[in-house]
Amino acid sequence: MLDHAPPASPPPGDARVTPMMAQYVEIKAANPDSLLFYRMGDFYELFFEDAEIASRTLGIVLTRRGKHQGQDIPMCGVPVERADDYLQRLIAAGHRVAVCEQTEDPAEAKKRGAKSVVRRDVVRLVTPGTITEEALLEPARANVLLALARRRLSDEAFCYGLAALDISTGRFLVSETDEAGLATEIARIEPREIILPDAVHEDPRLAALWRDARAAVTPVAREGLDPASAERRIRDYFGVATLDAFGSFGRAEVAAAGLALFYVERTQLGARPPLSPPARAGASAALAIDAATRANLELTRTLAGERAGSLLAAIDRTVTPAGGRLLAERLAGPLTDPGAIARRADAVALLVAEADLRDGLRRGLKSAPDLARALTRLALGRGGPRDLAAIRDGLFAAFEVGASLLLWGALPPELAGAAEALARLDRALPEALAGALADDLPLLKRDGGFVRAGYDPSLDELRTLQTDSRKVIAALQARYAAETGCRTLRIKHNHMLGYFVEVPQAAGEEFLRGPHKETFVHRQTMADAMRFSTVELGGLEARIASAAERALAIELAAFDELTARAIGASQGINAAADALAEIDIAAALAELAAEGGWSRPVVDASLAFRIEGGRHPVVEAALRRDGVAFIANDCDLSGEERKGGRIALITGPNMGGKSTYLRQNALIVVLAQMGSFVPARAAHIGAVDRLFSRVGAADDLARGRSTFMVEMVETAAILNQATARSLVILDEIGRGTATFDGLSIAWSAVEHLHGVNRCRALFATHFHELTRLAERLDRLANATLKVAEWNGEVVFLHEVVPGVADRSYGIQVARLAGLPPAVIERARTILSELERGDRERPAARIDDLPLFAAAPRPAPSPPAPKADPLREAVAALDPDEMTPREALDALYRLKAAAKGG
Ligand SMILES: Nc1ncnc2c1ncn2[C@@H]1O[C@H](COP(=O)(O)OP(=O)(O)OP(=O)(O)O)[C@@H](O)[C@H]1O
Questions:
Q1: Is the residue at 844 inside a domain?
Q2: Of 171, 270, 345, 854, which has the maximum CB count within 10 A?
């Protein structure tokens, strides 16, 4: 990583290397892949290439400090107080940071000799997937570290284990997949950092996965990753004799979970975040949505990568950060088991029906801070008084929420389970916290003042002593002023002198000579003042300082004791945090359903797909802001087990609403299967196993793929993988190439979906020729979007009706978009010519028509050349497109024409 990296250790006896630099070089050599934050006083300093990277990334000044082996050492520094801010920016830019602290007092180092260097050690590695600080985390987004491991099944095949760990909350889920499903699983998990064995990282078949990951990818060497040590590591971490209590895991899952813990130990260096035991995410129970479909449907972020404008942003009514994170997780991984889906929907249904209960719960939840993240910071020794307060407030909110649920009585199982977890909480901890913590809390514990008056009598006594001492000092100042006759005498304090007496220069001269010489000992002469100390003042100072020191020690002890109690209760606290998040989601989805008039879908094991009055939640919200109503549309793709699902082939004008209609039906599936109500009057959905979409066109030039290539790769994935239980959304496939190639591909793709995949599908196209497929394919029906023409203007009605579009209205849309009138006029002329040509010679190739004949306006059109039917007929032929039989026929026709001419 370093071009001009310092050597691992300086050459022995090299006088040009200072002892400090030697220490730096040694620590840096042990952490070659991280930027080293090297603590020096109130700064973290960076040297060499680290300094250059940091100064570029952070926009801070690059300076030089001394020389190393005869060369200037580039350096830059960040103040410790603001380190979080800089860390955040470095992590966001994809760097890792090793934080190196002084591990002894400088005074200690001095004892070893004047030239000895203060001992320093890396106390922590900060990486994108292992951060815990509030300032570094997004509240409503999980921060997932994904560990991968694999196990060979045969010569060719591997099984992959995935462990998704959010250290900031302790959530720890494992799953297993084959190679084909790996990309889909990673897309579902959306990790910030991926760690994986070197061998997996270097596998050429997977190279694209790591190259395209939106996460930092960290390969680790093989040692310590064997299955036995992985299992031992998990058992040790959770203090259990066997993993059976946590469920049954595959060997690849165990290896992945072990690797995750290995990385936690490596980055946290001894500190142990309170993790939940690993649980199976059950990949087979999740609706599979590949990365392209996820991106196309803009589930958790838009194509531009923003949260705003995504489905998640449109449906998020949660009031707690943990609820927000769980909502994103559920949206990313909807279920397939109708029973599990119904259990979630039962909770939502109760809270839709009971508005008062819902409001009460949401009010209670709003005051609940982020319990899980506060607890983790405390456990890692990075917590402050406000984290203790978060535990206090979170637990009180938990009691309130739990009590209102329990009062309700008969609850659906999901809510009953959550209420029970809350009822099990011990009131003693939050009460102790409430008794101990003051109203206004400092950010850092070392600032003191966070323990409430009355909590500890000895602390109160010391505080009184401190306040009293100040009074005593004030009295002393008055007495000295009276005794010396110097009315401007002041007692002041600074770090150098401690408490001292300050008088104007002239009075000071008196003090040095006169009767006060005995009392006032000269310390300092300023420009216009003199400073003295006295024995009395020294005694007072010692008392005040020791009182402050002892008071802080008592406060820190109280902090440690309360923190230990919170950590001791971490299992219950984490369970409460999970319960609150579940209640938040149920209430939030109920709020959303009530607000938008959404209905509860029926999800079962059939192949039904019947949506009545469906809407697109994101487009609807956008239109509502402009005061425009969304037109609801039905969709029926229901099939039978024996035959498979139905296909709707949708033609319609540009801007008619085809894409919106396609996507809304896919989004309704996602919402229904995550346990939500749906934006429709009614919906009956046979649980979908995989959702595919190929919508819009996106270049992927970074991967060296053209628009058309991307389109074909995605279409191939669909045709190869969709099952009879899948839902497929295809929007305008084949438009990225020549018309006839595109039409033929679209045609055969529909036939394949109908005959082989037999899935439920929506297929939008501008190839009107495809509508004739309905005559041959029994489970395919045509639908179109209605338009009206009014005063020569096209009006989009956005209503889906059975039938076929008569035209695309592309030119009208082009005019609405503001194409110059001359271009529109010319396009109309060409269109009518083309349509005439099409009527007269339906087989003619569009490419061969005089589409692009130069027509500079307003120059008069040149006189039409004399028609030569034979030449035209030859021009209309395309040998590449003809079968031998067609070519022979054409030859005979030409011969006949020549004879006739
Ligand atoms: N059901 C609807 N009700 C009201 N407005 C709608 C509806 N559907 C679509 N629209 C509006 O029409 C616009 C165009 O819709 P959409 O992109 O779905 O059209 P399209 O037929 O796919 O167009 P193209 O063929 O040009 O891609 C949307 O941005 C929205 O404003």
A1: no
A2: 345
Peptide bond into 858 cis (omega under 30): yes
Atom of ligand 1 nearest to the CA of 808: 25
Average pLDDT, rounded, for the chain:
86
Q: With respect to residue 843, please indicate whether it lies within any of the assigned structural domains.
A: no
Note the pLDDT of residue 858.
34
Check residue 845 and give its pLDDT.
43
Last residue of a domain, one of 789, 816, 843: 816
CA distances from 432 to 67, 399, 452 (A): 56, 15, 11
Q: Does residue 634 sit in the same domain as residue 732?
A: yes
Helix (H, G, I), strand (E, B) or coil at 705: strand
CATH code, domain with 638: 3.40.50.300
The answer on whether 658 is annotated among ligand-binding residues is yes
Which residues form ligand 1's pocket by a CB distance below 6 Å?
619, 623, 630-631, 633, 652, 654-660, 798
Q: CATH number, domain at 99?
A: 3.40.1170.10
Query: What mean pLDDT comes out for the span 849-869?
Result: 42
Q: Specify the 3-state DSSP secondary structure of 75.
A: strand
pLDDT at 2: 33
- % of the chain residues with pLDDT over 70: 92
Q: Measured in angstroms, how far is the CA atom of residue 658 from the centroid of ligand 1?
A: 6
Please give the Cα distance from 658 to 799 (Å, whole number). 10
| 323 annotated to a ligand binding site | no
pLDDT at 872 over 90: no
pLDDT at 644 over 50: yes
For the segment 185-214, the average pLDDT, to the nearest whole number, is 89
Is residue 851 situated within a structural domain? no
Do 798 and 884 belong to one domain? no
Q: Round to whole Å and give the CA distance between 295 and 516.
A: 83
Q: What is the mean predicted confidence (pLDDT) over 483-502? A: 89
In the listed set 595, 630, 645, which residue is the last one of a domain according to the structure?
595
At 830, the pLDDT band (50, 70, 90 cuts) reads confident
Whether residue 771 sits in one domain with residue 878:
no
Domain count, the chain: 6
Mutate to test the pocket of ligand 1, among 624, 626, 649, 659 (most ligand atoms within 8 A of CB): 659
- Of all atoms in ligand 1, which is nearest to the CA of residue 766? 25
> Which residues span the domain enclosing 44?
19-126
Cβ atoms of 382 and 132 within 8 Å: the answer is yes
- Rounded to an integer, the average pLDDT of 247-264 is 90
Any binding-site annotation on 296?
no
CA distances to 294, 312, 608, 609, 672 from 338, rounded to whole Å, are: 22, 22, 13, 14, 10
What is the token pair recorded at 231?
């299992």
Output the domain CATH number for residue 239. 3.30.420.110
* 296, 298, 618, 619, best to mutate for ligand 1 pocket (most atoms within 8 Å of CB): 619
| pLDDT tens digits for range 667-682 | 999 999 999 999 999 9
- 95 and 208 share one domain: no
Same domain? For 768 and 640 the reply is yes
Contact 376, 273 (CB under 8 A): yes
Whether residues 697 and 714 share a domain: the answer is yes
Domain membership of residue 114 (yes or no) is yes
- Looking at the fold, whether 790 and 656 belong to one and the same domain comes out as yes
Closest CA to ligand 1's atom 9: 657
Residue 338 marked as a ligand binder: no
| 508 known ligand binder | no
Ligand 1 atom showing the smallest separation from residue 656 Cα: 21
- Give the whole-angstrom CA distance, residue 541 versus residue 711: 78
The answer to whether the CB of 361 falls within 8 A of the CB of 400 is no
DSSP for 551-618?
HHHHHHHHHHHHHHHHHHTHHHHHHHHHHHHHHHHHHHHHHHHHHHT-BPPEEESS--EEEEEE--HH
Averaged pLDDT for residues 546-573? 92
Write the residue with the smallest CA distance to atom 26 of ligand 1.
Answer: 654
* 266 and 336 share one domain: no
